[in-house]
Amino acid sequence: SKILEKPYIAIEVIKALPLSVIQLCELFWQKQEREEDDLDYEKNSMESQYGLVNEFRHSYFPASANQTPIKWLLQIAFYETLDFIIEFTNKSIEYYSKSDYGKEDVVKITLHINGKEVLQYLSSSIWCTYRGNDSTVVPHLLQSIHMALEKFLLELSQIIDQKTIQNILIKILIQSKSASLTSIVCSVVLANPNKFYDIALILFRTIELFHLDTIRCSNEFQAKLLYSIGYGMDKLKNLLYVDERLKTCEDKHRNSNLELLFLNYQLLGVKEFTEEQNKEFIEKLYEIIDQYKSNFSTSKSFGILLARMDRRNLKFKISEQEGNNLLIEFSLKKLSAENRELSEQTHKQFEETFKYTFLKIWSDFLIGEKNKNKKCEEYDNNPLLALSETKQLIEELTS
Q1: Per-residue pLDDT, 343
Q2: Is 379 within a domain?
Q3: What pTM was computed for the model?
């Protein structure tokens, strides 16, 4: 079990016997058929909901790409390890979808890949597994495996030819039953939009992915805070795991998402494409939007999204900011009365939910020297504003 729990002390063993280590992972991580939980509390554990053993419940906290042997196995026996990850994840997520927890939030979606339809399980927590920022119901073991795969593919995409990586990404999409792996593919595309535009088109054809990737993106602002919980209490864990996660927050593509990518392609095209190639590519994007709009159910459920992501329905306002930076603001040319009312209601709910967020960020900055923004500067210049909002928050909590 030391090889599985502390792989950094068994690197030579992993190098010498990678396939045997993969077999160990399968044997010790996944609950075997007919194997029952001994205690009632084990039956209700999150690991049990995914068909995983309970023995390693606390072994992989905090989740990190360095937590399991997967990071090293990918370097030594890539395709065998990838096959294991896909099969392991498929079993776990399929098991979860049938559990009491999974029945409440998991839905099935369809990917359209080269004329094939691929069914996958999807939920917000499943989609965010590789980031761990909305995955409180996903075991740390599963998160760590996904983190290792995402990190390795991002690194590989910078050194291996485009065609090879594209084939790997398509393999993952076709063989996966879990959208958690599709989300990793999405991350690689967001990091390399001018390389994997064909993969982007595949993702764009499944409209359910847009909203969940926007949620993932919005959660990125608190990722550093989540990863830093308990920082300093265990220096070895900080060095091995927490610092690795904090480093990922610096990746530029974390602040992007599928909706922004779709819009950016319409505005900027694909780098190194000719004007004619970009015109053809943008036409494919319009075909996707128009197909969604022609479907009554989809148009009704995702009307606001479709209006926002269609360049033909947007007006632009460009203003110059400090440091010679340009700010581009978008507004909708037209939006149905029903969607406008829904948009206003959603905006009010959002403001109500997050109205004290900047106050919290400001307090975090004062306590832990976190990043500060313009809203925080307002509190610096007017401390009475912070005091007033704090009193209001206390009143709401006690009422």
Answers
A1: 46
A2: no
A3: 0.83
